[in-house]
Design goal:
This protein is α+β, with helices and mostly antiparallel strands. The chain folds into three domains: 60 residues, RNA-binding S4 domain (Structural Genomics Hypothetical 15.5 Kd Protein In mrcA-pckA Intergenic Region, Chain A, Roll), CATH 3.10.290.10; 95 residues, Pseudouridine synthase, CATH 3.30.2350.10; 146 residues, Pseudouridine synthase (2-Layer Sandwich). It has eight helices and 17 strands. Strands 6, 7, 8, 9, 10, 11, 14, 15, 16 and 17 form a ten-stranded mixed β-sheet that branches. Strands 1-3-2 form a three-stranded antiparallel β-sheet, with no helix packed on it. Helix 3 packs across helix 4. The protein is globular, with a radius of gyration of 21 Å. The termini are far apart.
């Protein structure tokens, strides 16, 4: 796999006025936003040979330097690209003899399928050929970032599955939702059902004949036309947070499936171009020692930068 060359782009009148971070997202698709902000911070991306902040607005005639990158997700021969391998390796935030925990980046699926040749689990198996029994303990949507558990053996996998099924694993998320929450804390108990619409799209909907689902939203901070919430899952249904949030009139920011298009469009002007949902922590009891294991995944830099801009 070849590394791309340095590129220099002259800004046109049509491109003038855009923020540099939004410009990069358009021209470097496939590169995680956290990596784009890192390039700005380290000076790998420059304008007129100068370092700039992510809030810099481009002017006609500016020369933007784009660094060489590994952008492919698949290398020749059908193996994961070096870029994807490094991305997953650098996302590991906890490891012991039986468990790996990642702060999964947004935009990377947990397993192959639906046109994706490699997900987190396939990449980890390439990185760890000696660990023959790596398996996903649970799943996260591709757009969701944060804590993802991978068991190293089948015994521990079965234990964690039993913990999940019994509701003894505490999972917390950070989400930005539309509007100001009407109460400091809201508990949503609405059954969910997966359905196939006439268009062929699979959607999760609130239905009386659905499976039991409980979500708790706690307001952490108010923003213009939005609330930052800590979200606790008491059950683990597909798209549960997204559907429950939309059901109570507070859809998630950046949600292109269940969200508000106009709200999402406004937030794009502040640099948000992904689902604002992050699995911030996970907690369960160790079967060997009996002690509580709590793992926290820091909020990705792109979401933190957005909040700083949106709240200023």
């Amino acid at each position: 796999m070849k590394k791309s060359e340095v590129k220099h782009i002259i800004i046109t009148n049509e491109q003038a006025g855009r923020r540099i971070d939004n410009f990069l997202m358009r021209h470097m698709k496939g590169i995680p936003k956290s990596r784009l902000y890192q390039m700005l911070r380290k000076g790998e991306v420059r304008v007129n040979s100068n370092r700039i902040k992510q809030t810099y607005r481009l002017e006609a005639g500016d020369t933007v330097r784009l660094p060489p990158l590994y952008q492919e997700t698949t290398a020749p021969g059908g193996s994961p690209s070096l870029f994807l391998l490094e991305r997953i390796r650098d996302s590991i935030i906890y490891e012991d003899d039986v468990l790996i925990v990642l702060n999964k980046p947004s935009g990377i699926v947990v397993h192959s399928g639906s046109g994706r040749r490699f997900g987190v689990i396939e990449v980890l198996r390439v990185l760890r050929p000696g660990d023959r029994s790596l398996e996903l303990v649970h799943r996260l949507d591709g757009a969701t970032s944060g804590c993802l558990l991978i068991a190293k053996d089948n015994v521990y996998l079965r234990y964690l599955h039993s913990v999940l099924k019994s509701g003894q694993m505490a999972k917390s998320y950070i989400a930005l939702v539309k509007g100001h929450l009407k109460k400091p804390s809201i508990k949503v108990e609405q059954p969910l059902s997966r359905n196939l619409l006439r268009s062929g799209e699979r959607m999760v909907q609130v239905r009386d004949d659905g499976k039991r689902a409980i979500t708790c939203f706690r307001c952490e901070r108010l923003y213009p036309q939005a609330s930052l919430a800590n979200v606790e899952l008491l059950t683990g249904r597909t798209h549960q947070i997204r559907v429950h949030a939309a059901h109570i009139g507070h859809p998630l920011a950046g949600d292109d499936k269940y969200g508000d298009r106009e709200f999402n469009r406004r937030l794009k002007n502040f640099g948000l171009s992904r689902l604002f949902l992050h699995a911030s922590s996970i907690q369960f009891k160790s079967p060997s020692s009996g002690r509580e294991i709590k793992i926290k995944a820091p909020l990705p830099e792109d979401l933190q930068v957005f909040l700083n801009t949106y709240g200023s």
